[in-house]
Amino acid sequence: xxxxxxxxxxxxxxxxxxxxxxxxxxxxxxxxxxxxxxxxxxxxxxxxxxxxxxxxxxxxxxxxxxxxxxxxxxxxxxxxxxxxxxxxxxxxxxxxxxxxxxxxxxxxxxxxxxxxxxxxxxxxxxxxxxxxxxxxxxxxxxxxxxxxxxxxxxxxxxxxxxxxxxxxxxxxxxxxxxxxxxxxxxxxxxxxxxxxxxxxxxxxxxxxxxxxxxxxxxxxxx
Length: 222
What we know:
By secondary structure, the protein is of the alpha/beta class. It has helices at 7-12, 14-18, 20-35, 47-51, 88-100, 113-116, 142-156, 166-170, 191-194, 204-214, and strands spanning 38-39, 59-63, 120-124, 129-130, 161-165, 182-186. It contains ten helices and six strands, in the order αααβαβααββαβαβαα.
């Protein structure tokens, strides 16, 4: 069974959830999970929404699609389950956080639930994937749904921080009102991009906190 989406999101997205395309999407996902091994587990597909309510959302980090290795994806962008080896992109995220805040911290877990519970929406553009096959659900209509989520956040909230890493995520900026929100862009934290000097030194995490503090909101404990 699909997990239910947290109530505040259900209310704000009620028209989207009733739309024919979304009903078709869920049927297609049901078929995929019946015929192939897919991730994350069905009950975690909407985990990003369930860990971070609409009201609590302060920061939005956009990923592309879930990790496709066994046991990795937990429904939060860039996040993996506690027992899983920290992926290279997330390791680079942790490195940048250490540099940004001038600290030495070696996280032992790649589970980012603690960020989500502080108001960080870790949203993948596509919420499901077949095992060992990246972008295998790209053809489904997940992006129609997640684009609607981005538009909703932009239109109905103020003073959010959007962290757009890499060309794919940056294309979503067209859905965001930059007069109402802070948009921070950089290269992707993947090793290829990071090693070309497009990731390290972006200071997105401290910049996000400075902005949140300036509008009277609690900083994120990254």
